[in-house]
Recover the amino acids of this structure.
């Protein structure tokens, strides 16, 4: 599958919805499956995808010009707290709108995600995922925290704090964020630019560890005249250990759970012209089905698959580990993807396939490591790639110093 643009982390709170639809993705393998109508044509979401600083009176709706909506899920994230936005479909299935108290107002300093599935007049089923963020007062800044509050995650989870504006006084902000654990381990911060601060321990977390993230940002001056807004704590728990190693040369993936090899699965990785990154990558999103379109990552129309099953995101730039129902006998024998890792699956997905089996046993925060690929190591700020830095280099990225 394709992971295309190999740069930069995106500003986003990382959300998990192992439901019906998923985010636009940048991968594909083998056969090109184009469609005459795109999900953007069929499913029209307001506010526009990737909108920022949307005002409280902004209009929120999902509609289709033909066919009907099958499902719409809207989620609001504030301070690592996820809450579903209630709404209803009109009787003819052409429009969804929010309902209940405050339905005509958007929450400020929040991120919204919209996941919708629709069927057009020709019976084609398509999924669309969009996000937008609402405005924060000009004199305030906030941090979007990953993972979400009270989550259970894999041992490779890295705490990510993404700020809504550039931080100039990084040392002051760093001092105001405290990440602790039980049992206690050394945890260090690392800045990626002026809008992202990550925290990790020297080694993967131990299963059962309780981690607390304390934001004491209120009234901390992050930049000239711009002060923090939050004073909150979040917690998450480390679940069992699972590290999966992809050998791109051998076309296999070994799944190791709590130190024991539980299975070896046949895979297909990146073809010679579009190889898969080497290195350690962390699961950040999981989707039962998603659309993968080459244009969303800066390429032409090489592929557009609206229903990729069991999609597990590994990098911000578009590397996924996902189900593949179109590459025939490639699994275990040859690499045909555009940069992602493919597992055998069927159209529509099935828990009985290798892709379904792995999806059902994966947590956000699990580690997937790729080796023996003819590509460079994934960048540490591409997704949660910080495990690809040695400990001393990681600690050197803090603003306060030891």
């Amino acid at each position: 599958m394709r992971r295309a643009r190999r740069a930069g982390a995106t500003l986003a709170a990382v959300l998990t919805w192992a439901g019906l639809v998923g985010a636009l993705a940048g991968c594909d393998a083998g056969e090109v499956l184009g469609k005459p109508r795109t999900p953007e044509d069929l499913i029209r979401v307001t506010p526009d995808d990737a909108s920022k600083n949307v005002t409280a009176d902004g209009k929120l709706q999902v509609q289709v010009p033909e066919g009907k909506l099958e499902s719409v899920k809207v989620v609001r994230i504030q301070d690592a707290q996820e809450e579903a936005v209630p709404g209803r479909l009109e009787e003819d299935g052409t429009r969804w709108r929010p309902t209940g108290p405050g339905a005509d107002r958007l929450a400020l300093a929040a991120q919204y995600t919209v996941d919708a599935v629709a069927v057009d007049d020709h019976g084609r089923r398509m999924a669309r995922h969009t996000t937008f963020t609402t405005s924060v007062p000009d004199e305030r800044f906030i941090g979007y925290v990953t993972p979400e509050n009270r989550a259970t995650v894999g041992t490779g989870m890295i705490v990510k704090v993404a700020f809504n504006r550039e931080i100039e006084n990084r040392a002051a902000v760093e001092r105001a964020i405290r990440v602790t654990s039980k049992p206690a381990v050394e945890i260090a911060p690392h800045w990626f630019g002026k809008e992202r601060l990550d925290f990790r321990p020297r080694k993967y977390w131990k299963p059962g560890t309780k981690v607390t993230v304390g934001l004491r940002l209120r009234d901390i001056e992050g930049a000239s005249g711009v002060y923090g807004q939050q004073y909150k704590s979040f917690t998450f728990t480390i679940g069992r250990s699972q590290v999966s190693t992809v050998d791109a040369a051998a076309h296999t993936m070994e799944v190791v759970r709590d130190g024991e090899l539980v299975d070896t699965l046949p895979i297909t990785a990146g073809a010679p012209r579009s190889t898969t990154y080497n290195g350690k990558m962390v699961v950040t999103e999981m989707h039962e089905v998603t659309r993968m379109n080459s244009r969303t990552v800066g390429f032409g129309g090489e592929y557009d698959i609206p229903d990729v099953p069991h999609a597990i995101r590994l990098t911000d730039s578009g590397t996924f580990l996902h189900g593949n129902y179109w590459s025939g006998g490639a699994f275990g024998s040859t690499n045909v993807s555009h940069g992602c890792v493919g597992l055998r699956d069927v159209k529509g997905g099935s828990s009985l396939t290798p892709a379904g089996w792995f999806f059902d046993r994966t947590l956000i925060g699990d580690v997937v490591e790729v080796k023996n690929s003819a590509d460079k190591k994934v960048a540490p700020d591409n997704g949660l790639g910080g495990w690809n830095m040695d400990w001393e280099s990681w600690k050197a990225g803090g603003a306060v110093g030891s």
Notes: Residues 1-25, 28-36 have pLDDT under 50 and may be disordered. The two ends are 41 Å apart (CA to CA). The longest helix spans residues 354-360.
